[in-house]
Design brief:
Elements lengths: L20 H8 L3 H10 L6 E3 L3 E3 L2 H16 L4 H9 L3 H26 L1
Antiparallel strand pairs: 1-2
């Protein structure tokens, strides 16, 4: 999900069942208002809401937030691009593009082989 190299500056996630928005903010290096905004932008991010609309995040939510943070801040994705990446919509397009690149490289290598002979 998230590469280990991107987690070096973030603290380890404690073995708790639920986390408050303040705890998640510290664990993920993101301010609480950003977390609330991401809830609107990423349908996968749905913390449990209890008493007075308080948010309680589970471990998989924290991991998802770290992945979103990595995509946006470290890999330079836009919100829309990160949403597509997380939902898997871009995998078909990526495979088509990869196939085209492989065909192009193969063609160039065959041309190079002809030149060498």
């Amino acid at each position: 999900m998230l590469e280990a190299g991107n987690n070096n500056e973030l603290p380890t996630i404690p073995g708790k069942r639920y986390f408050t928005i303040g705890e998640v903010s510290e664990l993920c290096g993101v301010k609480p208002h950003v977390l609330r905004y991401w809830e609107q932008e990423f349908p996968q991010l749905k913390p449990v809401k209890r008493r007075g609309n308080r948010r309680y995040y589970q471990r998989q939510d924290v991991l998802l937030i770290r992945q979103i943070r990595s995509l946006l801040y470290e890999h330079g994705y836009t919100i829309g691009g990160a949403r597509q990446k997380l939902s898997g919509e871009d995998t078909k397009e990526d495979s088509i593009q990869s196939d085209q690149i492989v065909k192009q490289i193969r063609s160039e290598l065959e041309d190079l082989l002809k030149l060498l002979k």
